[in-house]
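Support case: uridine-5'-diphosphate complex. Customer-provided input:
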Amino acid sequence: MRILLTGAAGFIGSHLTDRLLAAGHAVIGVDNTVTGSRENLAHLEDQPDFTYLHHDVTYPLDLDEPLDWVLHFASPASPPKYLALPVETLRVNAEGSYHLLELARAKGAQFFLASTSEVYGDPLVHPQPESYWGHVNPAGPRSVYDEAKRYAEAMTAAYYRTFGLPIRMIRIFNTYGPRMDAYDGRVVTNFINQALAGRPLTVYGEGSQTRSFQYVDDLVTGIVRLMDVPYHGPVNLGNPEEYTVLQLAQLIREMTASSSEIVFEPLPQDDPKQRRPDITLAQELLGWQPGVPVREGLARTIDYFQKRLVCASS
Ligand code: NAD
Ligand code: UDP
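Agent response - structure generated as follows:
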């Protein structure tokens, strides 16, 4: 198949590109590298089935070639990044989704949206099933991301209802792994890089808030399985292994054999207190569940950042 993937130079997009190419598809990767990096795609330079297009998908994309799929993964995703790019984040999910849905419709292609567990906001239901409508502050700082994704879901669902466009929507829970941006400010990258550098690990608040951490390969497996299943509602993809942020800091400190201290810094506004996916739907629909335990995924991620540190210092 011929697949257009936005956000291809990002963390998840680059792993998804690899998996799609390995399955024999042709991939057109689109990105404007606002939070991603061409380095994530550098290994594909001589791959004839991969084409890179530098483009801001907030604006329409003119393409002559036919497409079987449009996968929309472009969006800043880490809180410090989307807080620094508030209007861009709203627009890539709003106008970007609209233009890409139109592109899919014009090409007779299927459309796949990367949404987020953030649509559940600071959830009052735990764990979160897809049927939960969420608890979101519509005008708070995080709304530039969570309301943007809620709008993108609404727009995608409208194209299904109105035009019969075949769609998929996933709600991704915290995902980590190699090729994350070391400086994007997310918790896993911050803690690993702080621990490796012997700097203090910065726990926000008391560290009692929870997150559930999914290794990127598991996510990519869920994505490609869902492409084969004509289900048009939102599907949670995440690893139900839930940790407090303080537990994660302690685990990473232990796994890196670091003597870094743990320091406590102010909790950002509207930071969700808990988050864990109910993955019953994905299990039933896709026969999918995460296969990489957090310890193992963290070990691979630590190894990746350790090697980068060694390269940078040699
Ligand atoms: P990332 O920042 O590494 O990747 C996003 C990519 O989108 C980057 O390469 C960026 O340059 C590109 N992009 C952003 N705006 C663009 C624009 N206007 N035009 C073209 N390209 C643009 O983040 P990620 O973690 O790989 O996230 C990928 C997708 O998954 C995002 O849609 C994000 O919301 C979603 N998601 C990620 C997580 C997670 O834990 N990583 C969780 C929930 C949802
Ligand atoms: N966090 C933290 N220290 C950091 C970075 C993040 O304690 O250096 C916390 C953050 O406040 C949140 C959790 O870790 O409660 C996950 O943050 P992240 O930015 O990775 O993703 P989120 O799930 O908030 O989108």
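The chain is about 40% helix and 20% strand.

Case will auto-close in a few days if no follow-up is received.
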